Amino acid sequence: NIARQLYNQIRHDYTNSLENNKPTKTDQKNKLPNWKSTWELFSELHSRVAQETVNRFHNNLSSLSRLKANGHKIGWLQHKCQGDYQSITYSQSGFELENNNDRNGYKNLNLSKIGTIPIRYHRELPDTAVIKEVTLKREPSGIWYVSFGFTVDDAELSEKKPVSELEDGEVVGLDLGVNNYIHTSDGLSVDWLDLKDEYAKLDSLHRDLSRKQHGSNNWERQRKQLARQKLQIQRKVVDFQHKLTTWLTKRYDCVVVEDLEVQKMLGGSLNSRNMQDCSWSRFVSMLKYKGKLYGCRIVEVDPRGTTKECNNCSVETEKPLWVREHSCPSCGFKLDRDWNAALNVVQRGLNKLGVGDAEVTLVETGT
User: Fold this and answer.
1) 325-327 and 297-301 strand pairing
2) pLDDT band for position 37 (cuts 50, 70, 90)
């Protein structure tokens, strides 16, 4: 809450400065000692937390500038009301991790100006981990989390096999879909999670919340139940993606995936809810960092035309979403729509690495 009030002070100082003399990030960090002497409340924040609050404001400004440069209509950073500011970050100092907690599976985290907090690990930190940053966050469900940013010894990362040594069976292409979450160039498909029951319960909790008086105790309890149900769905999706990406990066030496512009797809599609549930951006992000961990090469390729193009002769054929089989009018090649796309993806990846076959010459065809 104190960090929230400091954020509002930073915003107020920036907004009320002259247009041609707006304070920079460094300028506002230099003002922190004066603000702490003027308002004693700010002295209860550790210096690193206060500096990270300044960083957060200016990072938000930079994000708005990028959106404006890309042609988006933007507003202005809003005043943070009670409950709008849910995390604080310690960077470089102000924290200490101890392993002397008597409770089984718990550790002690000492945070300056806050105290000692018992935490339970989601997974053990690497032995060579050097913690650089600690973020304390409260979820809408009321559950608290601590996230660690750390560096590890490069010796713990597996080396990638040289491109020239990649063999058949070690490279796979992925077609990202909705009916099947992924279809590989090996002919394997992974079905998407069945979350019908979870979403039915979510809709029911939404209806119950709408019947409660806003702001009442009953409304708050119902809101937390709704938030926990959303968290439950999110955990299932993340767990599914973790297991799938771990298997892919351990099984193959090179994974080729489509470089999708998910934001544009969500804005102009009638199927946007299913696309959003798929969380393709997070899936690819997981592939990238697990590729570094397990020595798997991740290659992103242009997704345009992978579904339309025939893998056998490269002729493009328009296919509505409901057509699930590729049937080429030029060469007669027939294959599952997603499998054909995955073969095109892996071929583009091999070409990008410089180890693929020469491109097939397009064949002229008549209607």
Assistant:
1) unpaired
2) very high
Q: How far is CA 127 from the centre of its chain?
A: 26
More confident: 273 or 53: 53
- Using one digit for the tens of pLDDT, what is the confidence trace for 82-113? 888 999 999 989 999 887 766 777 889 999 99
Cβ pair 252, 184 in contact under 8 A: no
Rounded CA gap, 38 and 114, in Å?
22
Helix (H) or strand (E) holding 292: helix 280-294
- pLDDT for the residue 364: 41
Contacts of 40 by beta carbon, 8 Å cutoff, 6+ apart: none
Q: At residue 64, what is the residue type?
A: L
**pTM to 2 decimal places:** 0.72
Residues whose CB falls within 8 Å of the CB of residue 308, separated by 6 or more in sequence, listed in order: 316, 317, 318, 319
Rounded to the nearest 10°, the torsion over CA 103, 109, 110, 113 is -120
Q: Which two tokens stand for residue 102?
A: 């008597």
The first and second tokens of residue 241, run together, are: 């993606």
Instruction: Find out whether 116 and 110 touch, Cβ atoms under 8 Å.
Output: yes
> How many Å from the N-terminal Cα to the C-terminal Cα in the chain?
68
Torsion-angle region of residue 59: left (phi > 0), alpha (psi -120 to 50) or beta? alpha
Distance CA 310, CA 327 (A): 8
pLDDT tens, 356-365?
653 433 334 3
Report the side by side order of strands in the sheet with 180-184: 189-191, 180-184, 171-176, 254-258, 297-301
User: How confident is the model over 259-308, as pLDDT tens digits?
Assistant: 776 555 555 554 555 555 667 788 888 998 888 888 888 888 887 877 77
Note the maximum CA span of the chain. 81
Residue 44: CB atoms within 10 Å = 12
Q: Report the C-alpha gap between 218 and 333 in whole angstroms.
A: 61
Q: Which two tokens stand for residue 120?
A: 């339970």
Determine the Cα–Cα distance for residues 128 and 114; give it in Å rounded to an integer.
27
Contact present, 275 and 265 (Cβ < 8 Å): yes
Which uninterrupted H or E stretch holds 59?
helix 47-69
- Chain Cα centroid distance, residue 290: 14
